[in-house]
Every structure is written in structure tokens, then in C-alpha cells.
Design a protein that fits this description.
- The chain is α+β, with helices and mostly antiparallel strands.
- It folds into 2 domains: 66 residues, no CATH class; 234 residues, Alpha-Beta Complex (paralog of FGE (formylglycine-generating enzyme)), CATH 3.90.1580.10.
- The protein is built from 5 helices and 13 strands.
- It has a 4-stranded mixed sheet, covered by helices on one side. Strands 3-6-13 form a 3-stranded antiparallel sheet, with no helix packed on it.
- Strand 7 and strand 8 form a beta hairpin.
- Helix 1 packs antiparallel against helix 2.
- The longest helix has 22 residues.
Length: 332
């Protein structure tokens, strides 16, 4: 028989008061009282004897009732109810381990110099944000081509749209939003918060490579790219539903192709002076933000793990989307 999980266990219940039968008087108590009465009659005057014996008798009866006999009832105190569980997450996250990798490539002028970066552990969405999820969180589906919101990655979202989405998703799941505006009305990212945010460029490339240093996460052979990505050679009509191609070694889908993905960083033409701790590289008056991964619209060269592009934060491209991460190097 299955145990009823709705009832508290015996170990969790704590008796506060026990009520016992009043019809039980231990024999030893009666004998003791008799002896006391006999001695008292000889040694103490009658008036004092009655008072003393009455007190002894009442005390003995109280002790007997408190410790003898069978319980007839117990008043039970139940433990306080547990706090309500957090709402279920609307997204599937993959744990990305702490590690060090070589970021960049000598094959691109804009991805040099190749440099070593230490990336602390974080959690990354397994898939790009879909049109269905975007509509559920924001009430709007800006995706192209027009049609019912589905499992295709959302596109036509600019960097500011993405920031708003991250904050809304964080609030919906009871997390602390990462993004806030400063005194100059510019968006700032608080990496100590536990909510959703965009990955830094280093985090994105580290997750895409998944422990590899080859051109793609599956190797150097471009002829295999069609097994892992939607791109210029197999594209017919816009973005494709997420998760249809093979994942990378860490179980992340669509890191190559389908849609470009916004990163947190401002775009720089080289990696000279780039952070080596996995954090986002941001500057005041950021005019361009980083895009990674390539898309259904471009050639294989741009889908390489080190491939990158840039866009004005207000741009809404038909092949631009995003995925979110959680966790930070500054998390306690």
C-alpha cells in the first residue's frame, strides 16, 4: 500500500500534553501512604498529622497520574508548513563547467589576438529563445516571417528588447533581475543578481566550443556543418525550429547558425586588452554590441566558433535572436 504523503510522519509530530486514565493507583503508593499514616499517629499530634498526610497523599496521587497508566488522548503540534516551492522554470538550462580556454582565431583579423580566458561556471539555455516563449513572457511575437508563434527562434529583436525580456523572465520565476538603468538612463548589468542575462562574449564562445579548439564544435570538416546547423547552403525560408540539428558536446543546440545571438559586450575590433576573467567587455557610450554564431542567411565561415559580428543595439535583424544565461563570476 502506498504511503499517504499528505499526512505528517510520526517523527514529525511532537506531543505537547498527555491525558491519562484516572482509575489506576499503583500498589506501592497505597502501602507508602499506610506506613506514613501509622508513623504519624505515634509521633505527631492529630491536627498536624491530618494536614501532613493530606499533602503527602495528594502529591502521591498527582505523581501517579502523571506517570502511570495508559494515555487516553494527546494534543499534537504539527510542524510549520514548508515554504512554497519556486515556480517551475520555463526554460531548460545546461550547467557549463568552470574552465580555461583559448579565445579567438588567427583566421579572422577581428578575432585576434588569441588569448587565454578563465570562465567561471554558469548555466546556459539549451536552445535559443523561441517565438512561443518570447510571446509568453512579453505578450508580443515580433518574429519574421509572420505567423503563429512556434518553436522557431525569435528574431527581429534588438539588444534592448532582449534586456527587457531577461528582466521579465527573471521576475516571472521569482529571481532578481540583472538589469537596471543608471542615472544617465543607460542599462547596467548587476552580475551579482541571480536572474537571467545575456552571456558575455567569452562565455558564449566557451559554451560553443564545449572543450574544443577546432573551427567548429564538432571539428574542422566544413562538410559536416549541415548536420549541426542551418546556414546559407541549406536555408530555404527563414529560421527553423530549434533543436532539429545535432547539439555540441555540452548538449547546446543551434550554437552554429539558425540565428545570430546577441552578447552582453560592446564590440571592439580586436581583443587587445579584453578581459581574461570571462566578464563582459563594456565601455561608456557603447555604439555596437556583439553578435555570435552566424545564422541561416550566411556562409559557413561565419558559423565558426570564433566567428563574430556586430550591430547597433537598436537594430532588429531578420536573422538575429538570442539565448540567456544565469550565474556569474561574482555570484557568492
Amino acid at each position: 500500500m502506498n504511503e499517504d504523503k499528505s499526512k505528517p510522519t510520526a517523527a514529525a509530530l511532537q506531543p505537547v500534553l498527555t491525558l491519562r486514565r484516572l482509575d489506576y493507583l499503583p500498589p506501592w503508593l497505597a502501602i507508602t501512604l499506610g506506613v506514613c499514616l501509622s508513623l504519624g499517629a505515634v509521633l505527631v499530634p492529630a491536627s498536624s498529622l491530618v494536614a501532613i498526610m493530606s499533602f503527602v497523599a495528594l502529591l502521591g496521587i498527582a505523581v501517579a497520574l502523571a506517570h502511570g497508566g495508559e494515555p487516553i488522548a494527546e494534543i499534537i503540534r504539527e510542524p510549520p508548513p514548508p515554504p512554497p516551492p519556486p515556480p517551475p522554470s520555463l526554460v531548460e538550462l545546461v550547467d557549463i563547467p568552470d574552465g580555461v580556454f583559448r579565445m579567438g582565431s588567427t583566421e579572422f583579423d577581428w578575432s585576434q589576438p588569441v588569448h587565454e580566458v578563465h570562465v567561471p561556471a554558469f548555466r546556459c539555455m539549451r536552445y535559443p529563445v523561441t517565438r512561443r516563449l518570447y510571446q509568453e513572457i512579453t505578450g508580443n511575437d515580433p518574429g519574421w516571417p509572420e505567423g503563429e508563434a512556434d518553436e522557431r527562434p525569435v528574431n527581429q529583436v534588438n539588444w534592448y528588447d532582449v534586456i527587457e525580456f531577461c528582466n521579465r523572465l527573471s521576475k516571472k520565476e521569482g529571481l532578481q533581475p540583472c538589469y537596471h538603468k543608471d542615472a544617465s538612463d543607460a542599462w547596467q548589468c548587476d552580475a551579482r543578481a541571480d536572474g537571467y542575462r545575456l552571456p558575455s562574449e567569452a562565455e558564449w564562445e566557451y559554451a560553443c566550443r564545449a572543450g574544443t579548439q577546432t573551427r567548429y564544435s564538432f571539428g574542422d570538416d566544413e562538410s559536416q556543418l549541415g548536420d549541426y546547423a542551418w546556414f546559407g547552403k541549406n536555408w530555404e525560408d527563414g529560421a527553423y525550429p530549434v533543436g532539429q540539428k545535432k547539439p555540441n558536446p555540452w548538449g547546446l543546440y543551434d550554437m552554429h547558425g539558425n540565428v545570430w545571438e546577441w552578447a552582453q559586450d560592446c564590440y571592439h575590433d580586436s581583443y587587445k586588452d579584453a578581459p581574461a576573467d570571462g566578464s563582459a567587455w563594456e565601455t561608456d557610450n557603447c555604439q555596437r554590441r556583439v553578435l555570435r554564431g552566424g545564422s541561416f542567411y550566411v556562409g559557413a565561415r561565419y558559423l565558426r566558433s570564433a566567428g563574430r559580428d556586430r550591430g547597433a543595439p537598436g537594430d532588429r535583424g531578420g536573422d538575429g535572436g538570442f539565448r540567456c544565461v544565469r550565474g556569474s563570476r561574482r555570484q557568492p
